[in-house]
Specification:
There is one protein chain. By secondary structure, the chain is of the alpha+beta class. Helix content is 22%, strand content 29%. The chain has a seven-stranded antiparallel beta sheet. The protein has a five-stranded antiparallel beta sheet with strand order 1-5-4-3-2, with helices on one face. A five-stranded parallel beta sheet has the order 17-16-15-18-19, sandwiched between helices.
């Protein structure tokens, strides 16, 4: 049987990994049997047809160890592992040998956990993934519980390389420090939007064809719950669909003013005494948000790579003991090279990277060889370099 990559950021969509497994983990005191606890009252189960408990247990334990996740219970036909936003585990099924189970603090996070599990299963057992039916949840065909409509309130230039987009909606209070990413669901140009819905197996069903929305992942830079506003920064690059959408709004085109937001999700802010961070433009908003939230005593290094280095004028602030170093691709600088060269100086640091996927893989492998604990690594590939370039 193929190996399940439940927690391997190198092999999966970064949003899925961020969604359930890559940020600070909540305390789960008094976690009770079969995943229920005062902190995580929402629980769901789905039978896994034709799957052996022993095989699932081995794979889940292996990935939990690799990701430095806490195993809360490993007993006869029951396994529970704590993740960033809840619990994932196994127990006897109703009509099968084994069932997957998830638990979370509210219905939105429960849905995120379900979607993550289904998507992971699709990688190795697609037939099983499509047959999964959760014990509870929103009706098939309804809007996902972590989806909301918002409107674009404003778009302004933020230096030569970024646009700052302000969205407004009814309730943005859920977008806090524990999860700072979301999907920006944009209607297609020249066609009526078809919005995502809940599939029969409890995951998100994304429409296809002319009405399919564009759904990139972005970082929440600022939130004002009292005003109902959420601010995100868009890196301007030629041919980018989000760039075109934002620029059209700036030019007065309001045809696609109403958008969808799915989230929050992803990694949250970090608690760290020492850090090594590195990002290209795609990761600047996340890096800036995390740097602003670091404790004042934190020390370390941050490498920020842009086409022309600091001339991009993206606003970044950091604790006094964190040194910012700008890199310019036009001058031959390389983000991964700088991070790899700095790695030996950061034996006790938390390592954070956001950039090209191949570079992320190299840094992750080097950090593991260097003895860094998996729990200290938050290394993500946000895009892939085309072949031959």
């Amino acid at each position: 049987m193929a190996q399940l990559h439940w927690f391997d950021a190198s092999s999966l969509d970064p949003f899925i990994v961020f969604a359930s497994f890559d940020c600070q983990r909540p305390s789960l005191k008094n976690a009770g049997r079969f995943m229920t606890s005062p902190e995580l009252p929402f629980v769901a189960k789905a039978d896994l047809p034709g799957v052996a408990f022993s095989a699932m247990r081995q794979m889940l334990l292996s990935q939990a160890k690799a990701a430095d996740l806490q195993v809360i219970e490993d007993a006869h036909r029951t396994l529970r592992v704590q993740t960033a936003h809840g619990i994932i585990g196994l127990r006897p099924g109703n009509t099968t040998e084994v069932a997957g189970m998830v638990a979370a603090a509210d219905e939105r996070w429960l849905f995120v956990m379900k979607t993550a599990v289904v998507d992971q299963m699709r990688h190795v057992m697609p037939n099983v993934a499509e047959q999964m039916r959760w014990s509870n949840g929103p009706a098939e065909g309804s809007l996902p519980p972590n989806f909301m409509f918002m409107q674009v309130r404003d778009v302004v230039a933020l230096g030569p390389d970024f646009l700052r987009v302000t969205l407004q909606g009814e309730d943005v209070s859920r977008h806090g420090d524990a999860a700072i990413h979301f999907r920006l669901v944009q209607p297609p140009e020249g066609a009526d939007a078809i919005w995502p819905s809940v599939a029969a197996n409890g995951s998100i069903s994304w429409p296809e064809g002319p009405g399919a929305p564009h759904r990139p992942v972005y970082t929440t830079r600022y939130v004002d719950p009292s005003a109902g506003t959420l601010v995100t920064d868009v890196y301007v690059h030629e041919g980018g669909r989000t760039t075109t959408w934002a620029q059209q709004f700036m030019a007065g085109d309001r045809a696609r003013r109403v958008i969808g937001v799915i989230g929050p999700s992803g990694g949250g802010l970090m608690e760290a005494d020492q850090v090594l961070m590195a990002a290209d433009e795609t990761g600047f908003p996340a890096a800036a948000r995390i740097l602003e939230g670091l404790p004042t005593h934190t020390k370390g290094e941050v490498f920020l790579e842009a086409a022309n280095g600091a001339a991009c004028a993206y606003p970044v602030s950091a604790p006094k003991g964190v040194i910012l170093k700008w890199l310019a691709r036009s001058g031959g600088d390389c983000l991964a090279g700088a991070a790899l060269a700095a790695l030996p100086r950061h034996g006790g640091s938390k390592i954070w990277f956001a950039g090209e996927r191949g570079q992320a893989t190299k840094l992750r492998e080097a950090a593991k060889v260097g003895g860094h604990a998996p729990g200290d690594l938050r290394i993500s590939g946000f895009w892939t370099q085309p072949d031959g370039r």
